[in-house]
Design goal:
The protein has one helix and eight strands, in the order H-E-E-E-E-E-E-E-E. It is α/β, with parallel strands linked by helices. A hairpin with a 2-residue loop joins strand 1 and strand 2. The longest helix has 26 residues.
Length: about 120
């Protein structure tokens, strides 16, 4: 009987978490985005549930623009919390200017396989 109750409790918890994740992605405000970089420079496309390129190198003060080319929503979320695009719908873009040199690793919060992407900012 204890195993049955534990199983039911775990199924209920999974359902609640799934509902919360879905409602969060729909209720988040649309991110404000500056215009994409000229000529596609410093651009990352999100297609086939992957970031392309996975690693991009820019100079301090430049921006990176992410464009979602998938039918599913995605995010570009810094592992250390420095930036978060919020939910990007199909065709949406997000730009981030980097004022400091360093390596910024990021992921998609919705898809656990979309990890280890990075922006390398040089002096």
């Amino acid at each position: 009987m204890k195993k049955y109750i534990l199983g039911i409790t775990m199924m209920f918890a999974v359902i609640v978490i799934a509902i919360a994740a879905c409602s969060k992605s729909k209720s988040d405000p649309a991110p404000t985005t500056p215009p994409p970089a000229a000529g596609g420079a410093n651009a990352v496309s999100i297609k086939n549930f992957a970031f392309s390129p996975m690693s991009i190198t820019i100079k301090k003060g430049e921006s990176v623009t992410w464009t979602n080319g998938d039918s599913a929503p995605h995010t570009a979320t810094d592992d250390a919390g420095a930036f978060d695009s919020g939910s990007l719908a199909t065709g949406a873009t997000y730009s981030k200017s980097f004022a400091a040199a360093g390596t910024f690793t990021y992921h998609c919060t919705f898809h656990s396989n979309m990890v280890n992407a990075k922006v390398i900012v040089t002096e």
